[in-house]
Amino acid sequence: MGKGQEPVTEADLHAFLDEEIGAERRAKVAEHLEQKPLDGALVETWRAQNEALRGAFARIAREAVPLSLSLSQPLTVRATTVPISTRRLDLARTARQRRVAIASAIAFLAGSIAAATGAIVVQHLPNLFRAETSISTTVGRRIATRAAAMYRTFANDRTRPVEIAAAQKAELGRWLSERTGLSLIPDFSSEGLALVGGRVTPGEFGAAAFLLYEMTTGERIGVFLERAPDDSAAESVRATPGDRNTSLYGREKGTYWAIIGSLGDERWKQVAQHLVNQIRAATP
Amino acid sequence: MTSREAIETLTPGLRRYARALTGLGNAADEIVQATLMRTLEEERRWRDDELKMRVYGTLTQLNRQRQRAQAVRRQGEAPLGRGGVGTKPGSRREAISKALDVLATEEREALLLVVLEGFSYQEAAEIIGAPKATLVARLMRARAALAAAQGLDPRSRPNLAVLQRRPDHLRVVK
Fold it and tell me: What is the rounded CA–CA span in Å between residue A102 and residue A82?
């Protein structure tokens, strides 16, 4: 008995449908299907499945490929976990930034004063103007903007402000460590701030951490942490105004950090100093 | 054709596979992007004839990693599920995506590579890194589970000649 004459199995029916079958065997299966209409119905069910599946997803392959996936375009966003050197980009950006520094400083000042709670921000301004423009502040500014957007998105979310709550701090720590390479979950209990929880979030260079803390009054502050791709740039602390919130940002031991929320001026400095100390302590 | 152009011709199909495999909406493109990046990084080691399978293999691996990471993260929480995101409610794609949701990842890979992306059994087996027999077994389980999920399972009917003879094929994954 040749291979073509062995009894038809279910695998044969699949091979028949998928055209993974030799001519002799195909004839045997076709004959079987004629004799056993229920098996024929089974094959037809699968054939209908195939068509439904192809039909359902056909449109995606016909869509224009998003720019982010086009290899002909310069890649500005990369979804790898490999740290990317952005030093040259940053230098170019810094040069641009110097040119617009005066203009933006004026806008910054005007915006700050216009803010209802402008006092906090204005008090930070002297520091801001003293600080030198550096690579880290260019990146830092973008990180502060990111942190502010996350704060607006998550801090007032009633349902799910954080992905993993403080109750599962160990799990949160493992997750953040795995994704961001940073094992630190800062503790601000001495400042009267309790950890709400945190999440992995997009950063400037890869995955970053966003953590929320809560005061007894219910006010929340956000802390953004991201591992910097290299350790060369200077450290500096800057302030930017949010809409109602202030953010402080800087870079310490290869970690970009930003804190955002509404706090009194002195509290801010304490919390920021506390954060910097903890980053120092956690970084070898 | 340069290697970049060669990869670009594969991108539409990769997006389709990623969308169906992950059940994610636009976020599925992220895994495609990671796939393209990794492929470019490995560029020097390619041979042209294996490019397509290599790229699909990379996407398959990245998706498995993603799902493992998700599984660790979601320990102790209710599973979020796979499908539904990025599909219009009531659409045909939503219905299919929900049905795909009942499949194990390995079953979904086998089904999508063969049916949606048109790979041969041998090619699909190489992409998933398993023997051909394993690929076929997963494909069979996928089809059975999908039919059961859609309430179309002819196995519920009696007197199916093939199944009577080979009861070991009756295994329905659910």
Answer: 36
